[in-house]
Specification:
75% helix, sigma factor activity, Arc Repressor Mutant, subunit A, mainly alpha, disordered C terminus
Length: 195
C-alpha cells in the first residue's frame, strides 16, 4: 500500500480510511514491539501494549494534523502504556519527570531507521554480554531486583554483583559508542526500572 505523501496519509487516517490504518499497523507494529521489548522484555505485555497503542491512535485520529509527528506520538504512547501496565500490576516505578522528558526527546528526535537500529543494537549487545554478567545485568535492569536481592538469589557477594553490573555498562558503552549512551542509560536506568 502506498500513499503519495505524509499529508495524504494523515488526511486519510484522520478521515477513518481503514487502508491508512492498516498501512500504519504494517509499518509500525514490529518497531513498536521491539521498543516495548527493550522496555519490559515480556512478549505478551509488549503485544498488549502495541495493540493498545493502535487503538488509542485510531480514537485520536480526528485530531491528527499533517505536520504532526506520528512516529513521536506512537512511541510516546507506547511508553505511557508501558508505565500504566506496570502500575496496574502494582509495581512501583519511581520515574522522575526529567527522565520521562529526556526519553521522549530522544525518541521524538530520531528518524525511524535510526531508532529501530538503536533498539536492535542495544538488544543484541545485551545478549552478547558474558553469561554471568548478562544474567546479573538483566536481573538488575530488566527484572528490577536490588543488588542485595541478586546477591541472595545467586549466593554471591554484593560486591560481585556491583562489579558485574559495572562491567556490563562498560562493555555496552564500548560496543555501542557515545551516540547510544543516552538512549541506553535512559532505557536501563534504575529510575525506569520497576522495583
Amino acid at each position: 500500500m502506498y500513499f503519495e505523501d505524509h499529508e495524504t496519509f494523515v488526511r486519510c487516517l484522520r478521515d477513518g480510511d481503514e487502508r491508512a490504518f492498516m498501512y500504519l499497523v504494517d509499518k509500525y507494529h514490529q518497531r513498536l514491539y521491539s521498543y516495548c521489548q527493550v522496555l519490559g522484555n515480556d512478549h505478551s505485555t509488549s503485544e498488549d501494549i502495541v495493540q493498545n497503542v493502535f487503538i488509542r491512535t485510531w480514537h485520536f485520529r480526528k485530531k491528527l494534523k499533517p505536520e504532526f509527528s506520528l512516529q513521536a506520538f506512537l512511541y510516546k504512547t507506547a511508553y505511557n502504556e508501558f508505565l500504566m501496565e506496570y502500575r496496574r500490576n502494582k509495581k512501583v516505578i519511581p520515574l522522575e519527570h526529567d527522565h520521562y522528558g529526556a526519553l521522549n526527546e530522544v525518541v521524538g528526535a530520531m528518524d525511524e531507521e535510526t531508532l529501530e537500529k538503536m533498539i536492535s543494537q542495544v538488544t543484541v549487545e545485551i545478549q552478547n554480554l558474558p553469561k554471568k554478567c548478562r544474567e546479573i545485568f538483566t536481573l538488575s535492569k530488566r527484572e528490577g531486583l536490588t543488588n542485595m536481592e541478586i546477591s541472595d538469589y545467586l549466593n554471591i557477594s554484593i560486591k560481585t554483583v556491583e562489579t558485574h553490573i559495572t562491567h556490563a555498562f562498560s562493555i555496552l558503552r564500548q560496543k555501542l559508542g557515545d551516540q547510544y549512551e543516552s538512549f541506553l542509560f535512559l532505557l536501563l536506568s534504575p529510575n525506569l526500572t520497576p522495583k
